[in-house]
Amino acid sequence: MSAEPGTVRPGGRTARVRAAVLRAAGDVLAEHGFAHLDLADVARRAEVGKTTVYRRWGSVTGLVADLLADMAEQSLPREETGTVLGDLRANARLVQRTLADPRQGALFRAVIAAATCDERTAHALRRFYEIRVAEWAPCVEQGVARGELPPGTDAGEVVRAVSAPLYYALLTTGTPPAPAAADRAARAAFAAAVAGVYATP
To answer: Where in this chain does the record put each HTH tetR-type domain (predicted)?
Structure first.
C-alpha cells in the first residue's frame, strides 16, 4: 500500500489520515458488519476526501486488511509472569477482554464472518493471528527451556489452543467469554501441553 501523493507532510498528516480512516472503518464494522462497509461512508465519517480513501486502499477488502494489520501492531505485548501457566493465563485474559469489549468483540465477529466468503479478508485475518501467535510463542519456548513442558512442544499450537475455545464460545453462543472461561482455557491448554499432546514425536 502506497501513500497518496502529497499526503506525506510535516506533522504526520499521513498517519493521522490512516488512523482516522481505520477508526471509522472499525466503527462501521462493529456497528453494521462487513456488508455495510462502504469507502465513501468511511471517508465521510473520517472527515477525509473520498479520493484519498479510494487511492490509498482501493477497495473494502484492502481497507479491512490494513485495519487488521493496524490491530496487530496495536495489540498489547506479551506479558511474562515467570511460568508457562501464568503466561498462558495472561494471554487468555487478554483475548477474553478483547472479545468482551463491545466494540472489539463486534468488530472481530464481523471480520470473521467476512473472511468466510472473501479470500483477501481471510488472508489478512490469518496474518493477524500469525503475528499474535508469534508474539506469545516465546512463553511456551521458555517453558520448554525451563523444563515445564516436554521438548519438542509446538509453541504455536499451544497458544492457539488457549484462544480457540474463547472464540468458539463467542461464535456459537453470541455471548462474550467470562474471565473464568479464560482461566479454564489456559489451564486446559497447559495440562495438554504438559501431557505431551503438542509435542512433536
So the answer is: 15-75
**Which candidate, 57, 68, 79, places its Cα nearest to that of 1?**
57
Burial class (CB in 10 A: 0-12, 13-18, 19+), 102: exposed
pTM of the model: 0.79
What is the CATH code of the structural domain delimited by 77-194? Answer: 1.10.357.10
Length of the chain: 201
Instruction: Give the start-to-end residue ranges of the domains of the chain.
Output: 13-70, 77-194
Question: Which residue, among 33, 54, 34, has the nearest Cα to 43 in the 3D structure?
Answer: 54
For the segment 69-100, what is each residue's pLDDT rounded down to a tens digit? 888 777 767 878 999 999 999 999 999 999 99
**Domain 13-70 class, CATH top level:** mainly alpha
Give pLDDT tens digits for 175-195: 899 999 999 999 999 999 999
Amino acid at 135: E
Range 143-163 average pLDDT: 97
